[in-house]
Amino acid sequence: MKQSIGLCGLAAVLFAPFAATASPDALCRPDETVTYHCLIGKKSASLCAAPASGEVQALTYRFGTAEKVELEYSAAPNNGKTFSAFSQQIDPRARINQVWFDRGNVRYLMTECSGGNCTSDGRLSVVRGEKVVMNAECRNPLSDPPSFSRDLVQFGPRREDARSFSPLLKWEEAANPVETLYESESNKRGD
Hints:
There is one protein chain. The protein is mainly beta. It has helices spanning 6-14, 178-181, 185-189, and strands spanning 33-40, 43-52, 55-64, 69-75, 83-91, 94-103, 106-115, 122-128, 131-138, 153-154, 163-164, 169-171. The chain is globular and about 40 Å long.
């Protein structure tokens, strides 16, 4: 007897490489995959990928709560918008991986820190021109550090080691103020 797996089953098979453990607080829709997620207090920041035919057809950032999304930015082939990625060494044992988007002169920056000298695992920041408007430590509700899906982007110590698996996420060297964002509390106090 021939068995049908249905559309949902077919989607699960086709997009299995993008599967990620979904957080109950993630702001991604059921047809999207969580590629980054963290909490700041009761609010969530989620980067969601909508795969179609094996390729990401939309990459969407949402910030807010399940009841009210306060900010949404979506990149798709037909709207000309993209996200950017870069990795920056800030210490011999700490590297900051970054994904961001710009709206006018405001940059919305998601980060993860990898290495032994990280003052926090992840941050969500807003930068207007040279001024840091918001800089908050964020956490993954599943108790893992916030991190970007390696099915979306691969960071490396050298540019040639880095790559994006979607044309909606481009590699771009940028002078984001990550040293300031990850400055240790003792350095801020002057200890």
